[in-house]
Amino acid sequence: MKIKSNYDIKPRYKKFLNQHLGPHVNEHACDREIRKRDITAPGTANGCKEVNTFIQANKNDIKVVCGKGGTPQGNNLFKSNQHFPLVTCKLQSGQRHPNCQYRGKKSTRYIVLGCDRGWPVHYEEGII
């Protein structure tokens, strides 16, 4: 029996943090942040990600959703027990990577994360 290490989680966790950790991101910084972090949607016609959500919290507060701070939803998904402040960046029509332009909106909601052995590796959605 092979014991799975956490090494295979680390790149997925890092990608999750790159795409969604945004304690200091505001709704006017979508274009700059998405470009700086090189967030794209490979395999799409324009290369721009339709929607990207930044969670305005530190990584420890987010990670806890995969444990005692979240409620299991099945399929390795966990819904946060508390609301999180978010900035949701929505793609404006017609752009192509690297000139993707976004409109940002602030909100506060529960978040649903995909977790692997206690580590967040996927942002599923925000729930009002």
Automatic annotation (TrEMBL):
Start and end residues of each Ribonuclease A-domain domain: 9-127
Subcellular location: Secreted
A Gene Ontology cellular-component term: extracellular region
Annotated GO biological process: angiogenesis; defense response to Gram-negative bacterium; defense response to Gram-positive bacterium
The keyword Oxidoreductase is annotated on this UniProt entry: no
One matching Pfam family: RnaseA
Keyword RNA-binding: no
Gene3D superfamilies registered for this protein in UniProt: Ribonuclease A-like domain
Key words, A-Z: Disulfide bond, Endonuclease, Hydrolase, Nuclease, Secreted
GO MF term set: endonuclease activity; hydrolase activity; nucleic acid binding; RNA nuclease activity
UniProt family annotation: Belongs to the pancreatic ribonuclease family.
Annotated protein name in UniProt: Ribonuclease like 2
Originating organism: Cyprinus carpio (Common carp)
